[in-house]
Amino acid sequence: MTTIALITGANKGIGYETARLLGARGATVLVGSRDEERGHLAERALREGGADARYVPLDVTDEKSVRRAAEWIDTEYGRLDVLVNNAAIARGDGDGRPSGTKLETLRTVYETNVFGVVAVTNAMLPLLRRAPAARIVNVSSEVGSISSMTDPDSPLWPMASIPYPSSKSALNMITAMYAKELRDTPIKVNAANPGYCATDLNHNSGFRTAEQGAEVSVYLATLPADGPTGVLWGDLWTGAGTGTSGVLPW
Ligand SMILES: NC(=O)c1ccc[n+]([C@@H]2O[C@H](COP(=O)([O-])OP(=O)(O)OC[C@H]3O[C@@H](n4cnc5c(N)ncnc54)[C@H](OP(=O)(O)O)[C@@H]3O)[C@@H](O)[C@H]2O)c1
Q1: Ligand 1, atom 6: nearest CA belongs to which residue?
Q2: 164 an active-site residue?
């Protein structure tokens, strides 16, 4: 049976690479994109690379768009095997310190990174429950880890911004709560840390590639039955460097 995988924000960056890698493994990849032109371009590029890719209009902040995407997947496939909640934005104010945070910025970031994930997950859950063993991957970040962000020996210690890091902390809790609700089902729900990857999100300043980041999502999207659920998993960035993967502290 072909795996049906929906990736939100799949028109570029880590999401696009996730679609490409899952497509190369034989999955039908549903390329979520809020922009029609960018979605079609990504679909075409993925198809030219040999993947069975289909563009799905999906703005995670727009309830109607989310509902329509779920209805379309239901009509076309009747189930969903993999959901990668990848779409996110990063915003900050002033010099990035908590004292300069504008509520408007916080609301904008949470609409996509937090509320968008809950909206998409709840809309897709009936379809995921119909799959034999669905996987939900919430693309988080090590900057959402309170343990890492408060460790003076962590490379993340100098960072003290609220909007993006706290949105990923919320996402971590959301991941843990869905995993708890679904623990008696075959569905696994995990948070992925791609590591610091060069994408538009950080003006291409990351030292890992988008493909390396996507490998983390693919790993969690293809977990075997005895794999973990309810963990933050991915690239470990310590004072000694990066490049090893494992379970990270919340
Ligand atoms: N890059 C890193 O170092 C890094 C590290 C840790 C975690 N992450 C996480 O990795 C994921 C992918 O990020 P990236 O680095 O690949 O960033 P990116 O290149 O900026 O891609 C973000 C994607 O999300 C989409 N998106 C944004 N808002 C959306 C909305 N409302 N509805 C649907 N799609 C929306 C974007 O679409 P448009 O093209 O239309 O804007 C784009 O496709 C994010 O969850 C990010 O937080 C990244």
Answers
A1: 141
A2: yes
